[in-house]
Amino acid sequence: MFLDTDFNSISSVLNNIYQNFAESAMKYYRYVKSMQVGKQPHVALLIETLESMTEMAFMLVRAKDRSQTSQEYVCAVSKRQMQWLALTAFENVLGRKQTRFQPVLAWVKKALEEVRPKDRREALRLIKVAQKGQAVFRGFKY
Asked: Between 1 and 89, whose confidence is greater?
């Protein structure tokens, strides 16, 4: 229901996606931080986890979109939009804790360039969503 673009505006759906990824990024940070220094996952695993999470989120949205049991469900969010929102959420959350996540943040910045919206109007819409999402989580301590 939160991702249904027939039920919600595209802006609301994009906001929901961003906020879900921001919350996931906070949990990701807390999980890594809770591990002893010598037992923390290697950077490659952290990046792979982020990639897999984004891919899985998109596949789940599309699977529900194509499900015969939910014929009225429609999600008009593209894979590039989903990737951009996920990467931006992680960049915003981990950027506040950058000392520990420099290699991951460097990868995120590079990946963001690859999925950057080509259309200026679309880019502005996504930036606005990210700014609104950041405002929601600005005071959170994690």
From this structure: 89
Give the whole-angstrom CA distance, residue 18 versus residue 28.
Answer: 15
Residues 26, 89 contacting (CB under 8 angstroms): no
Please give the Cα distance from 4 to 18 (Å, whole number).
15
Can you spell out the DSSP letters for the chain?
Answer: -TT-TTTS-HHHHHHHHHHHHHHHHHHHHHHHHHS-GGGSPPHHHHHHHHHHHHHHHHHHHHHHHH-GGGTT------HHHHHHHHHHHHHHHHHTTHHHHHHHHHHHHHHHHHH--SSHHHHHHHHHHHHHHHHHHTT---
Question: How is residue 15 written in tokens?
Answer: 């906001």
| pLDDT per position as a tens digit, 34-85 | 998 888 899 999 999 999 999 999 988 877 656 555 567 787 889 999 999 9
